[in-house]
Amino acid sequence: MAERAAVVGIGQTRYKTRRNDVSIAGLLREAVDRALEDADVSFADIDAVIIGKAPDMFEGVIMPESYLVDALGAMGKPMLRVHTAGSVGGSTAIVAASHVQSGTFKRVLTVTFEKQSESNAMWALSTPQPFSVHLNAGAGGYFAPIIREYIRRSGAPDDVGIKVAVKDRRHGARNPLAHLQLPDITEQEVRDSMMLWDPLRFLEACPSSDGACAMVIAAEDSITGSKPPAWIRGVAMRSEPTMYAGREEVNPQAGRDCAADVYAQAGITNPRKDLDCAEIYVPFSWYEPMWLENLGFAAEGEGWKLTVEGATSLDAGGDIPWNCSGGVLSSNPIGASGMIRFAEAARQVRGDAGAHQVEGARLAMGHAYGGGAQFFAMWIVGADKG
Amino acid sequence: MREIAVVAYSQSPCVADAGATNEVELIMPQLQAVYSQLGLASAQDVDFVCSGSCDYLQGAAFAFVAGVDALGAVPPIKESHVEMDAAWALYEAILKIRMGHADSALIYGFGKSSPGELPIVLSQRLDPYYLAPLWLDTVSLAALQARLLLDQGLVSESDMAAVVARSRRNAMGNPLAQLAGEFSIEDLLAEEHFVAPLRRADCCPVSDGAAAMVIATVEQARAWGAPYARITGIDQRIENHNPCLRDLTDSVSTRQAAAAAGVHRGPVDVAEIYAPFSHQEILLTRALGLDDSTLVNPGGGVLAGNLMMASGLSRVGEVFRRIVDGKAGRGVAHATSGPCLQHNLVAVLEGA
Amino acid sequence: MSEPLADVTGIKAPVYLKYRFTAGSAPARFLCRLKEGVLTGQRCPRCSNVYIPPRGSCPACGVPTEDEVVLSDKGTIQSFTIVSIPIPGNPIQPPYVVANIVPDGANISFIHLLSECVNEEVHIGQRVQALWKPAEEWGHAMDNIRYFRPLDEPDVPVARIGKLPVTGLEG
What we know:
Shape of chain C: globular
Number of helices of chain C: 1
Shape of chain A: globular
Helix content of chain C: under 10%
Number of strands of chain A: 11
Strand content of chain A: 15-25%
Radius of gyration of chain A: 19 Å
Strand order of the largest sheet of chain A: 3-2-4-7-1-8-11-10-9
Number of strands of chain C: 10
Largest interface: A-B, 61 and 62 residues
Oligomer: heterotrimer
Order of helices and strands of chain C: HEEEEEEEEEE
Strand order of the largest sheet of chain C: 8-7-6-9-10
Largest sheet of chain C: 5 strands, antiparallel
Distance between the termini of chain A: 14 Å
Low-confidence stretches of chain A: none
Largest sheet of chain A: 9 strands, mixed
Strand content of chain C: 25-35%
Distance between the termini of chain C: 88 Å
């Protein structure tokens, strides 16, 4: 019943700690202009605009779609603003795709962003909540205990996280847009960096970046542009409560269910074999082995082995490269990070990933998560219509 | 395209201050109400959930996440959220059903505006470089718009007072309304100006509360055996942000959305218009192209109670109620968002 | 001829918004009991799990919770991490331990500080007890408990964490 839809244009900004050279609107325009050019369309060809970003407190602008209309050529058009915490970049792409897949529109523009240097994202994330103990634990403080539990259950050696941190930054060095450009990063450097929330060290955590990512998504009969489209072969979202008695936090059910749904839509039975590469939301190094298991690329307790073997490394010629763009560990404008994953997966199957291209990639996965690892959004894109 | 209908709706009373009630405590009674209208046990019994809320009303980032705790999301559910009035969550849910990824959806909106000073909070919704530093509150902006209408002879203060009087009178029959009573136009005009040319009564109150709705394909609605109202058209459009770039005496996006939603493909028995200020009800009635044959805001409208982030959804709910109660055959629901009616949604509902 | 003006590359526009937070009925009752030096939870009528802090609903079942359960201030470490970043306004010095502690009688953990311990010896399953501030300093907040400290009791096996009755004994 869903109409076929494809990504026909992608645009991203260079990711940096502070984009002092542009206003918020300017930041978005950079990504949007690139996406429109990539799709060989103008604003007049866009039927609707879908924006997504994380909490408004990160910039201090409430409901910014109001202010951004003019910059996005959205006057007189339908507009929607999605907010699903950290997974928002991914869920925005999915909501945007639904505008086309529902048969309602032919071609839409979607953009996600964060200009978190304008406010103070760390404050917004850990500002004392009334009636709670103020522990300033932050996101890392929330995830570190879960990671410790993964290590305990799996018996993984203590350098797995370090290996992921190095791999993703080396990948990022192939991507001129990535925030962190650390081509010579070594495991020793990561090991020597300051321990923040044991076992996570400074260099095992994502940066805080300004940036935007935009895509043009079109219906089968409205394809434009000179590059091949990235056909959307599956979309799925799942949510579960942050905390409940007996919640499995290391291997969240919502992640597993979401993956099963999206794989079924795309006809994937063995993700490691059927997919050519994946862009997976890994903001803290250890989440790579954990998600390898959660997403069925490895059996429970074995995810770390794939990392250690180099299976997920483009540089090592691994069979299932993860985060060739550098991933969240290299660039993290929070509201955009999910869409960057989805867009980078699309770039791969269009053969348009430049120096971080996986040769011959035809089927790729984009993944995003947010909140207390409770909101998941995933998609599968392919060179073939399916 | 699949036919989609509203099958259940519930709204909390509009109160100035919900007091010691957190998000979950606001939302749950409304969820329980729509479940029981359909004989459902929980959110597990619908295919998709979408909500609308705004963190800044509560003053905490991620406030909406707390709302997920009201759903019973174990096992995990398909769920999404817009940082907008829940009328736009309804829009997202409709797209989900149209593409075949759901046959039913639960939509809810909630807001607890009482902790902050809403008009001041919303001044930070404006362009951060040029307008927000001026701290232009929503009442002042609406007053600017009213001044334009008055100066151009498109509306009179007496017309505005008439809107208020009708709202208060209609609200007397609405147990969920916050402000109701018999007021004469003379009484209202005798009140002092608040932010001239607006008087206090020309401005909607700030209300805490929540609303919930279930929509489904017509097939699913029949399977549930619930009375339903079909959504035969829905569209939403946004205009330029800066009020200086728009004709504030008209609502172009409402006209566009109304045309696209097919408002005039049939008679309009009732219209629920989200007009937070009295002059806006007149402006929007005209933009929707309605005449005296349409009953406007028979429950008092948003002037009688304004559930921020749910008022738009509740317009759709009110029209649904009138249709399934047999008081209307076809109705229009309107929702607005943004300074001076920048963003508008229009939905058309008809009986089964 | 006037000097060319330098480009404006940014403005500082501070935002000050005041909010009067309310706790919600269930959290408010919890905080009032906390002011009396008592930890409480709520039991879900459907799944029987006891939640702390109580929020008026069971997030798994989506039903209202009303049954109040008094809990012990002894608990078990369910997970933890060692933090190196100081907490503004808190005298505790990094590196310090932040732990998810399940109080006896509850089925879920809450996050709090650990102290008077050797960080490297902290482990999952370890028994701990609250150290309260002096009663005259108690307010409506979880920081009436200054921190938790190790208790000389046998470890709880991982599979039993969150399944202990209030007495903390075999359950």
